[in-house]
Write a structure and sequence with these properties.
Elements: E1 5-10, H1 15-25, E2 30-36, H2 45-48, H3 65-68, E3 73-76, H4 83-92, E4 96-99, H5 109-116, E5 130-131, H6 138-142, E6 146-148, H7 152-166, E7 175-181, H8 196-199, E8 204-205, H9 213-225, E9 231-237, E10 244-251, H10 258-269, E11 275-278, E12 294-301, E13 306-313, H11 317-331
Parallel strand pairs: 1-2, 1-3, 3-4, 4-6, 5-6, 7-9, 11-12
Antiparallel strand pairs: 7-10, 8-9, 10-13, 12-13
Helix pairs in contact: 1-11, 7-9
Length: 341
């Protein structure tokens, strides 16, 4: 499809929703049609986010399928457990859907219900949902009608690990992953745990061993590398607004140099517009925030046969809205970088 695509955003008042609106406003092939945010309905979008004054003075509406279905594509930027109630009717009306939440990422409904701690209301649609990790699933994304945008932590982990697992450079056993994230990853809802006084000058691990992204990481690593993995994943909250920094420790299966590792990434990602890798540069958050890039670095500790892989992304862009627009571009036949550079 080419020409102008009309788009609606459900959940536009949240942080990811606002980032999505900003990207869509500068997309040359998009007409931003409707913005929905039930709790803020009746307010101007620019009233919630003053930086959009004279750019997006769109009045937020209460969601209705009739209004949303006036668009060609509907983005859902909602907390987990909400999109599943909207998707069946949107699909029945022939709309293409990009879900930024977690409702359609997992194929195993039992694992979804265990890690998300609620029942799935549209489990029959899980098999048709396409996992939107752009660089690894491009062909399927192009034909998707229901796209499940990946989680932010999984994006920072899967992209660095799949080339190494596929090339059998590292063991799939006992991969240890530590990630730190800015507070915007928790969304815009009020919570005492996210107050300035609670997060400032502190670091806190959370959902240790039970984070909802754990089964997503395991599923995607198997799907894209063919390797069943055993991983330990511990996320941490740090007192910054945005960004995710991930450190991965894996055991080497063969003697390799930094140049060998760089060549592996080159084979996978040399022509990918948003993947940057380096054997010499160490990623840092200030190099990726407000961009759709993932930066990957790596070091080898020969004494222990350990490979240490580092990655950095903006959780609101490559980890959410930016990747959603990247997938939208594939689904509707636009240049993949449109609206993102």
């Amino acid at each position: 499809m080419s020409g102008t695509v009309t788009v609606s955003v459900v959940g536009a008042s949240g942080y990811s929703g606002a980032e999505l609106v900003q990207l869509l406003l500068r997309h040359r092939g998009v007409r931003l049609h409707k913005l929905f945010a039930n709790s803020s309905a009746g307010k101007s979008f620019a009233e919630l986010y003053p930086r959009f004054r004279k750019e997006a003075d769109i009045v937020l509406e209460t969601y209705s399928p009739e209004a949303a279905c006036q668009s060609d594509c509907v983005f859902l930027a909602l907390p987990s457990g909400e999109a599943m109630h909207l998707v069946p009717e949107l699909l029945a009306r022939g709309k293409k859907i990009i879900d930024l939440g977690g409702d359609f990422r997992l194929k195993d409904v039992a694992r979804y219900e265990r890690f998300y701690t609620h029942a799935h209301a549209a489990a029959e649609l899980l098999p048709q949902a396409v996992y939107g990790l752009t660089e690894l699933n491009r062909a399927a994304i192009q034909h998707a009608t229901l796209l499940a945008n990946p989680g932010c932590y999984p994006t920072s982990i899967i992209l660095p690990l799949v080339p190494l697992l596929q090339s059998e450079i590292i063991s799939p056993e006992r991969i240890t992953i530590t990630s730190v994230s800015g507070v915007s990853g928790a969304g815009r809802h009020a919570s005492i745990d996210l107050h300035f006084c609670e997060v400032n000058e502190s670091v806190k691990a959370y959902k240790v061993g039970e984070h909802q992204h754990l089964p997503e990481i395991e599923q995607a690593l198997f799907d894209f590398s063919g390797k069943a993995v055993s991983i330990s994943f511990v996320p941490h909250l740090i007192p910054i607004t945005r960004g995710i920094y991930t450190t991965i420790h894996a055991t080497l299966l063969k003697d390799v140099s930094l140049s060998d590792i760089e060549q592996v990434y080159a084979r996978f990602y040399a022509h990918e517009p948003f993947v940057r890798y380096s054997a010499t540069l160490v990623p840092q958050l200030k190099g990726v925030v407000h961009t759709n890039f993932i930066d990957i670095g790596f070091r080898i500790r020969q004494e222990t046969r350990q490979l240490i892989v580092l990655s950095a992304i903006d959780n609101l862009l490559k980890g959410a809205a930016g990747q959603a627009v990247q997938n939208f571009n594939l689904m509707f036949g636009f240049e993949e970088t449109e609206g993102l550079k």
